[in-house]
Amino acid sequence: EVQLVESGGGLVQPGRSLKLSCAASGFTFSNYGMAWVRQTPTKGLEWVASISTGGGNTYYRDSVKGRFTISRDNAKNTQYLQMDSLRSEDTATYYCARHFNWEGFDYWGQGVMVTVSS
Amino acid sequence: DTVLTQSPALAVSPGERVSISCRASEGVNSYMHWYQQKPGQQPKLLIYKASNLASGVPARFSGSGSGTDFTLTIDPVEADDTATYFCQQSWNDPRTFGGGTKLELK
Question: What is the DSSP string of B44-103?
Answer without folding.
Answer: EEEEETTTEEPTT--TTEEEEEETTEEEEEESS--GGG-EEEEEEE-SSSSPEE---EEE
